[in-house]
Design a protein that fits this description.
about 100 residues; 3-stranded antiparallel beta sheet; Alpha-Beta Plaits; 7 strands
């Protein structure tokens, strides 16, 4: 899909930018981005010692077999380009672009 621009009621132009990637090295798994995403694009996963992804049980205890939690893009096709995730991220882990991934 190619990029597009929208004319807002104020007359200003806006080009939405869609989530492309999350830097897992920088991500601290705080979940702030998950809470502000209006479309269910993101998912929290655990990473074990080998860097393999492990599903995180939200109701489970914290003694799972992962070294750290990171956010991932589970449903990038649902992104509406609002960049709320990027704006709230304390570690600035997000990359966005004008064309959806």
């Amino acid at each position: 899909m190619s990029s597009f621009t929208v004319t807002l009621p104020s007359g200003a132009s806006w080009t939405p930018t869609f989530v492309q990637s999350i830097n897992e090295e920088k991500c601290i798994g705080c979940g702030r981005c998950f809470r502000v995403c209006p479309r269910g694009v993101l998912e929290l996963v655990g990473l074990n010692d080998e860097g393999e992804r492990i599903a995180v049980d939200p109701d489970g205890d914290e003694e799972e077999e992962y070294e750290k939690k990171v956010m991932t893009i589970a449903h990038g096709e649902l992104c509406i380009g609002c960049t709320a995730c990027s704006k709230i991220c304390p570690k600035k882990c997000y990359t966005h672009a004008a064309s959806p991934a």
